[in-house]
Amino acid sequence: MTKIKICGMTCEEDIKAVNKYLPDYIGFVLFFPKSKRNISIKQAKDLLAKADKRIKTVAVVVSPTIEQLLQIEEARFDYIQIHGTMTKEVYEQCTLPILRAFNISNLEKLEKYEIKDKIKGYVFDSKNPGSGETFDWKLLDHIRQKQKTVIFLAGGIDENNVKRAISEVAPDVIDLSSAVEKVSKDGAFFGKDPEKVKTIITIVHGQ
Ligand SMILES: O=C(O)c1ccccc1NCC(=O)[C@H](O)[C@H](O)COP(=O)(O)O
């Protein structure tokens, strides 16, 4: 069965939706104020306490500092997902399993990380994470064949392209955010839409 991660939990309503429909992973964007999904570590802790324990929790960060890493570890997430730069110090001090994210513009850095044993998965995402944009999945063809680690496919996946994503890329985990959000016509953001969450989880778990 293909697994699914719903990223960008921001409020209690989001947690109620995921607790009802049980994706395999949920993500929390931290220390990244540019994102509309960014929440504080305190908000994240409150939401983590309410999340169903069957769902694995992921702290999603960009180029984290040691201080941020320590706060994430103290909050007891199951995984840390690292976009941007991962310094040697952060890698060495990290006690959480790492999901290393590659935005499709820096795929060439992949080889550098292949043998690092704390890396428990790769997230392949579009150039702008959380933007709802897809990328050319063919770029992953050679990577998919030689990787033994868990592969997350992200970037603009929705109920219309998710079956094709699964059949063409065969990821272990489908990772998405924008496609299950409530957004008004003027672009205001209201968190996750429970019906959209239900629909996509049903499709992915059925594959
Ligand atoms: O979601 C964000 O705003 C975000 C910001 C900074 C780094 C990562 C971010 N999201 C990471 C994810 O795992 C998203 O699920 C992934 O980018 C796919 O998003 P979408 O294209 O909106 O489905």
From TrEMBL:
Positions of the N-(5'phosphoribosyl) anthranilate isomerase (PRAI) domain: 4-201
Chain segments annotated as coiled-coil in the UniProt record: none
Reactions catalysed: N-(5-phospho-beta-D-ribosyl)anthranilate = 1-(2-carboxyphenylamino)-1-deoxy-D-ribulose 5-phosphate
Record flagged with keyword Isomerase: yes
Enzyme class at the top of the EC tree: isomerase
Key words of the record: Amino-acid biosynthesis, Aromatic amino acid biosynthesis, Isomerase, Tryptophan biosynthesis
Presence of the UniProt keyword Isomerase in the record: yes
UniProt-listed InterPro entries: Aldolase_TIM, PRAI_dom, RibuloseP-bd_barrel, TrpF_fam
Associated pathway: Amino-acid biosynthesis; L-tryptophan biosynthesis; L-tryptophan from chorismate: step 3/5
Xref: CDD domains: PRAI
Any one Gene Ontology molecular-function term assigned to this protein's record: phosphoribosylanthranilate isomerase activity
Gene3D superfamilies in the record: Aldolase class I
Family listed: Belongs to the TrpF family.
Protein name (database record): N-(5'-phosphoribosyl)anthranilate isomerase
Origin species: Anaerobutyricum hallii
